[in-house]
Design a protein that fits this description.
10 strands; two-stranded antiparallel ribbon
Length: 211
């Protein structure tokens, strides 16, 4: 009987590991040499909320996430944005028609949280349900030292601002539209993303195609 229990325990662990592995979605390598000239992208950067419900290609999603918070210096594991004292407190989550995901910069991959379309929970405005992608920016306050929560929030918001501008410039270059948003029910979003510990939703940003 004891051997039988051990056998079933091993099978359960193996199946759990298989299930976990299946949720990891690899992204294609981003094209780091493409796009329009920087000055042109800055000139064409703007906010827009008039989305059509159309999915990004996997290549576009790969480049969008790498631009947002990917690793651009693998030797030092540093990101495409600066962070105060290199705290690297930000986590990027996203909702699409295919589900809810967490971006894993080190692997340049997605970890799936849900396979349901939860885009409407990524904001408090009607247009978010039509955006191709809603990015949700989360800060792990435990990585920001012993400062007050007010200072941590300000620091995290600054980091999100860097991400937001990178995303805006990519969208301008790629012919997509975007809008950076504070209007998000943070409690509902935290529940949706299954956040634990001292992690806080800071901002969100919608990306997609214009009508």
């Amino acid at each position: 009987m004891k051997k039988l229990k051990i056998f079933f325990a091993i099978v359960f662990i193996a199946l759990t590991n298989v299930s976990t592995a299946q949720t990891l979605i690899e992204l294609p390598e981003p094209d780091k040499a493409g796009g329009m000239p920087l000055m042109q992208a800055i000139n064409e950067r703007h906010s827009s909320r008039n989305f059509v419900d159309k999915a990004l290609t996997k290549q576009q999603l790969s480049e969008l996430l790498w631009v947002a918070y990917g690793i651009n210096r693998p030797a030092s594991e540093k990101h495409t944005i600066p962070t105060s004292r290199n705290r690297q407190d930000i986590e990027v989550y996203l909702t699409t028609k295919d589900g809810v995901f967490k971006y894993l910069p080190e692997e340049h991959a997605l970890s799936q949280i849900s396979n349901e379309d939860k885009r409407k929970l990524a904001g408090m405005q009607d247009f978010v349900k039509n955006a191709s992608v809603n990015l949700i920016y989360v800060s792990d306050f435990d990585k920001l030292g012993d400062s007050s929560d007010d200072i941590k929030t300000m620091t995290a918001a600054t980091h999100c601002g860097f991400i937001g501008q990178n995303v805006y410039l990519y969208c301008a270059s790629e012919g997509l539209i975007s809008v950076f948003r504070a209007m998000i029910d943070k409690e509902k979003a935290a529940e949706l993303l299954q956040l634990k510990g001292n992690k806080h939703v800071i901002y969100s940003q919608s990306v997609g195609y214009a009508k």
